[in-house]
Amino acid sequence: MKVLLKQDVKGLGKAGEVRSVADGYGANYLLPRGLAVAATPNVLKEFEARRQAEERKEEEDQKKAGSLAERLGQIVLTFTAKAGEKGRLYGSITTADIAARLETELGQPFDKRKVVLEQPIHHLGTHRVPLKLTSDVIPEITVIVQAEGE
User: Within a 13 Å sphere around the CA of 146, how many CA atoms are in the beta-carbon half?
Assistant: First the structure.
């Protein structure tokens, strides 16, 4: 029996692969649990069409991320905050602060989860902050933190 795997199955294969399995294994284990579907010509055709649509969408998303990365690479955000004598902020600049400022700069929504900060910014100065748009498009913006009254 040939099946198209809907999920990864340990020892058999990854999702999207077509495998030949014993009739009993397919009919009694894989199909009832929703791990696979019978690999009929219609199912294979539908799966291939869905895969191609996902690839086109991913390509389009990569192009959008690339153009956005170019715009973001030129952005410099300046924050003013209260700071002590040694340059330590009384508060901090967080990913939400940076994302909110990016939304106003870009004129479009920006998800704070795309801002990659290991810890909030607690010191005055210039900081390079990476933004993870996609797994391989990670531009950096410049964030300048100044003390109030400068």
Answer: 8
Q: Assign residue 25 the CATH number of its domain.
A: 3.40.5.10
Nearest residue to 65 (alpha-carbon basis) of 110, 126, 118? 110
Mean pLDDT per segment of 10 residues, for the chain of length 150 residues?
A: 93 92 94 94 92 93 89 91 91 94 91 92 94 89 88
**Per-residue pLDDT at 149:** 75
pLDDT of amino acid 134:
86
Pair 99, 115: CB distance under 8 Å? yes
Instruction: Check whether residue 53 and residue 125 sit in a common domain.
Output: no
SS3 call for 133: coil
> Do 51 and 99 belong together in one domain?
no
Q: 38 and 27 in contact (C-beta within 8 Å)?
A: no
- Residue 67 has φ and ψ, to the nearest 5°, of -70, -35
- Where a domain ends, among 18, 43, 60? 60
The pLDDT value recorded for residue 148 is 86
